[in-house]
Design goal:
heterodimer, A: mainly beta, seven-stranded mixed beta sheet, 7 strands, about 10% helix, B: mainly alpha, about 0% strand
Chain lengths: ~120, ~280
């Protein structure tokens, strides 16, 4: 019992040493949930640490996802990618990044483009 | 099946292959003198697990290309395959492949020296996981990496011993099998609690806020902890009821009951490996 109490104290004592993990999206343009009246010229993704953007797809409503190319390059915390021509509708921009620690992280941003 | 789902299945099997091969090597080096009739079968089990683990690890890395691309096109994309096999994840996979090759070489031969070689390969294969993921990049690495190594070495010892124990109960004379089970229980009683302590310490250090325990990452960690508690109960039942019943020799069904209990333990641990594959593939604290 005493052995386990000592171990429990040791484990709880580690809490202040909290480690941060993986690349997380901090900010995106267009922002998640935004409604636009003008088609964006580019997409911007800002992560908390440098990461390699390995896939970016845009899907309009129930249409098939469209791959956005030109992602090759070194790791970066801020990515700006030219947007394809967009028609009014609801969009999902989904991405995949490779973190510095080799984890693959994915996420998506939803926005709506209205008729001007 | 999408690449993410297939990747989790392959990662689960790769984890099982690596830990089974490493655990069989530890079992042979620790309990070799007791393995009078089952030694060759256990070495063959470890050898085959090492070869299967190598194939599954290669498949896992190949599939990373598809995960990076979010489509199977990534399997044939040279740039994504370079990323999949490079970085800390690639280094860990290459080191694990080397460790598994050493295990296979060690278990292909008889004798103490060969068993020692296999155990060294097992330590390499198990500890290579610490080269990638949270423990490779984030402070305080000096604490995270050793904790993960302890966690994985003992998991390999435990998970990898279950099938060898099953084979021993089946093929060794009852008195020899009981002596081996008692020796194993003696070692496991000291080592297995370290899985929970190291795992919990890692979770406490990696989980940044109390509400993360209610997020998918925290819930999967809690699932692992719950399964660990259940496994400890099963192991205690084996140690304090099933093994003494087998030793007494008055219950002819005792060896069968113990084999069944070990099989349930194996399936539960395999389920924990699937949860681990899911956790480490998709979620972040």
């Amino acid at each position: 019992m005493r052995r386990f109490s000592v171990l429990a104290m040791l484990v709880l004592g580690l809490a202040p040493l909290n480690a941060q993990a993986h690349a997380h999206l901090l900010q995106a343009t267009p922002a998640d949930g935004s409604v636009l009246t003008e088609a964006p010229a580019s997409f911007m993704l800002l992560f908390n640490e440098p990461a390699r953007l390995t896939a970016l797809n845009i899907q309009r409503d129930d249409e098939a996802p469209q791959k956005i190319g030109g992602l090759a390059g070194a790791a970066s915390a801020r990515w700006v990618i030219a947007a394809p021509k967009l028609a009014p509708g609801g969009y999902t921009l989904s991405y995949r990044v490779l973190s510095e620690d080799s984890h693959i992280m994915s996420g998506s941003i939803k926005f709506r483009l209205r008729e001007p | 099946m999408n690449p993410d789902l297939l990747s989790v299945v392959v990662r689960t099997l790769a984890l099982a292959g690596v830990l089974q091969a490493a655990g069989a090597a530890f079992f042979v080096v620790l309990f070799g003198p007791w393995l009078l009739r089952s030694g060759q079968r256990i070495r063959r089990l470890g050898y085959q697990a090492a070869l299967a683990g190598m194939a599954l690890l290669a498949a896992q890395q190949w599939l990373r290309g598809a995960r990076l691309a979010d489509s199977y096109a990534g399997l044939v994309d040279p740039a994504l395959q370079r990323l999949a096999w490079g970085g800390s994840g690639g280094q860990a996979a290459w080191l694990q492949l080397a460790g598994l090759a050493v295990i296979a070489c060690g278990l292909a031969r008889q004798g103490r020296a060969a068993a020692g070689v296999a155990a060294a390969g097992a330590a390499i294969a198990a500890c290579a996981f610490a080269l990638t993921g949270h423990t490779s990049e984030h402070a305080p690495r000096a604490l995270l990496a050793p904790l993960l190594c302890v966690h994985l070495l003992v998991v390999a010892f435990w998970f990898g011993a279950l099938l060898p124990l099953y084979l021993c109960i089946r093929h060794e004379a009852r008195a020899d099998a009981v002596a081996l089970l008692r020796a194993f229980s003696g070692v496991a009683g000291w080592l297995v609690p370290a899985i929970g302590v190291a795992g919990l310490a890692l979770a406490v250090m990696l989980i940044p806020a109390a509400n993360t325990w209610r997020a998918p990452y925290g819930l999967l960690v809690l699932t692992k902890l719950g399964a660990f508690g259940l496994l400890l109960l099963l192991a205690a039942w084996n140690r304090w009821w099933a093994v003494p019943a087998m030793a007494a020799g008055d219950a002819p069904a005792a060896p069968r009951a113990l084999r069944r209990s070990i099989a349930i333990e194996y399936l539960l641990l395999a389920a924990v490996l699937a949860v681990t594959a899911l956790l480490t593939s998709f979620y972040s604290p």
